[in-house]
Amino acid sequence: MIRSPFKFLVSVKAKLFAGFLAMTLLIAGLGGYALLSIDNAGQVVTDTFDRPLMAVNFARSAGQTFAALEIETLRPSDVDNPQAEFDRLVTQFREDLEVARARSIAPRAESFFDDIVSDFSSWEISERARLGQTGTAQLNAALSNDIEENLDIVIELQTNQSFRNREQAISTMARVRRFSLIAVATALILTLGLTAWIAMTIVRPLKAAAGAAAQISAGRLDVMIPKGGEDETGQLLKSMRSMQTNIRDRMAQEQDLRTLAQHRLADSLENSKDGVLLTDIDGRIIVANPGVGQLFQNLSEQPLVGQMCGTLFAADGVPVALNQDGPQQSGEFQLDDGRWLRVNASATREGGRLFIWSDITESKQRTEHLRQARDAAEAASRAKTMFMAAMSHELNTPLNAIVGLSDMLQLEYRKPGRDPSHADMAGLISQSGSHIAQIVRDVLEIANDDTEVIDPATLSTVDLGKAVDQAVSGVRDLAAQTGVRLIWTKPSRVQCVQGDALDLKQLAAKLLDNAVKFNRSGGAVKAQLSETQTGQIRLDIIDTGIGIDPKNFDHILQPFQQVDEGYSRAVDGTGLGLSIVDRIAKRHGAELKIQSALDKGSVFSVIFPRSSSMTETPHQTESHAA
Is residue 247 assigned to a domain? Predict the structure, then answer.
């Protein structure tokens, strides 16, 4: 769209700019004229009063000085040096005369000033020649008279000129006052004209636009909007007319969409499997879809619209004729034919009620099947628990008997005269029986699947250092056989935790057994207890073994799992040790942490909540294989 270069001249911006520019120029003109008048008035005051008065005063002072000079030539005040006082008075006379001449406002006085200067120079020469001579010398009367007369004439001329300036100043101020009144009246008339012009071309169209906008916002879309001009207010009015048309079109579209939505809603209600019923504020049914008749077959043959809802349904949506046996869940009820329904009843904004019924028979059946499956799983869990308890007794009893009998045979065959090989065989039987018994206990521990935190009421205060010490004693022989140095540093304080003593001993023993098995000959395993900054008890088992890849940390905590790499291929075991350690730690509210690197070793840390501590003398023991 090509815009006319003259369109700016009819814009609101141009009109406002022109109006304010005109008023600014008027104000600037009046202000400039006022400044000029003030400056002229000041100059008149100076010419009328300041300069004439100074000229008259200094002329009179020069006359007085000249009189003093005449007296000084007749009777010197200093007989020894009459020249000094004469020179001073001559200088003062010349200075006064120069100031009077500089402040003079009478052009005619210039010639008299010249005569005074000339006469005084002649008088000075003649009087200086006779100064200091004795006798009855006579003054130069003619020159003196001329000087005095000329000074009087100068004073008279200044006075006359000052009076003429005063008359001229009065006339000038009267003229300035008349011109100022005319200028102010003209500026006022122009300002009023500019204001009226701006009101007619800007304010009135804006007022019309505001009135039309108010009526449109009130919903009167047929209001007449003025046409307007070519400036911004005209464009605004054009935009409002366009907006009025768009609003009309959009409202028509919304009405069509609303009608379409109503049709769609009616179709949805007709085809919905859920029953929907709506009542008015009096409880009379005004909407009931076919789903109501499908769900309540006793109502399918009668028209529902127009009936009182209270005769058919209670306030919670349950049919009045339904006989409910036993407690029912809120919002759900069972029909006489066995079907289950869920109802959602709510109040409408107009005061009526909306009921929506849904068939939940299949959901109820699935819930019942899940309950039965849960009961079966709980029964199986109880049977498993009873089986494990029985197996624990049935397996541990003969194994303990075998171990005990083999220990007795070992002692018997150690006596003098007996065959030592029989004692070794009995020891092997005892060792194998103990190993099998431990495997059985580990399997039962894993099968028990108990990782819940133990009830604090069943716990006791356990010296964790003592439990670790017992575990170290249990693996000392294994460390000696594999050539691993075993280091155990008792803490300086007794570290007590709340837990089960046998569980904590088993935890430490399995960590130490695992560290020794997966170590190298000549390696080391270190056990230590410490206290964290937050007051927790920390058990660290540090080894220099084959290490574990960090990606396998979660893998090795699973039952019956081992990382089959490096030295671990030659190590016997069920893969239950670390899994049991993790379970025991969780039952005690502790946390198991693993730090390891391949071929560098591992650190297994168990962090317990703090119970209590007391001071004890530090002690360190070390065991190693030759």
Answer: no
Q: 69-84: per-residue pLDDT in tens?
A: 888 777 777 777 778 8
Same domain, 391 and 299: no
The pLDDT score that the predictor gives to residue 431 is 61
Looking at the structure, tell me whether residues 531 and 466 fall in a common domain: yes
Average pLDDT, the chain: 77
Within a domain: 219: no
* Domain match, 416 and 318 both: no
Q: What total of structural domains would you count in the chain? A: 4
Structure tokens at 73: 């030539």
Secondary structure (DSSP) of 53-109:
HHHHHHHHHHHHHHHHHHHHHHS-S-SS-HHHHHHHHHHHHHHHHHHHHHT---TTH
Could you tell me if 476 and 498 lie in one domain? yes
Q: How does residue 131 score in pLDDT terms, banded at 50, 70 and 90? A: low
Q: How far apart are CA 72 and CA 84, in angstroms?
A: 11
In the prediction, which pLDDT does 494 show? Answer: 83
> How many CA atoms are closer than 13 Å to the CA of 242, on its beta-carbon side?
6
**SS3 assignment for 227-261:** CCCCCHHHHHHHHHHHHHHHHHHHHHHHHHHHHHH
Tokens of 130: 């006779």
The radius of gyration of the chain's CA atoms, rounded to the nearest angstrom, is 64
**By residue range, what is the domain housing residue 420?**
363-449
Domain's final residue, options 186, 201, 216: 201
Residue 510 and residue 430 in one domain: no
User: Which segments of 285-325 are extended strands (E)?
Assistant: 285-288
| pLDDT for the residue numbered 270 | 77
Spatial separation of the C-alpha atoms in residues 181 and 183, rounded to whole Å: 5
Query: Could you write out the DSSP letters of every residue in 598-625?
Result: TTTEEEEEEEEPP-EEEE---EEEEE--
| Domain end point (choices 154, 173, 201) | 201
What per-residue confidence (pLDDT) applies to 356?
92
Is 239 part of a structural domain of the chain? Answer: no
What is the C-alpha to C-alpha distance for residues 80 and 559, in angstroms, rounded to an integer? 144
Can you tell me which residue has the tokens 């395993």? 525
- Regarding whether 32 and 179 lie in a shared domain, the answer is yes
At 619, the pLDDT band (50, 70, 90 cuts) reads very low
Q: What percentage of residues in the chain have a pLDDT greater than 90? A: 2
- Say if residue 472's pLDDT is above 50: yes
Q: Is residue 531 within a helix (H) or strand (E), and if so which, with residue range?
A: strand 524-531
84 and 177 inside one domain: yes
Same domain, 74 and 161: yes
Strand, coil or helix: 262: helix
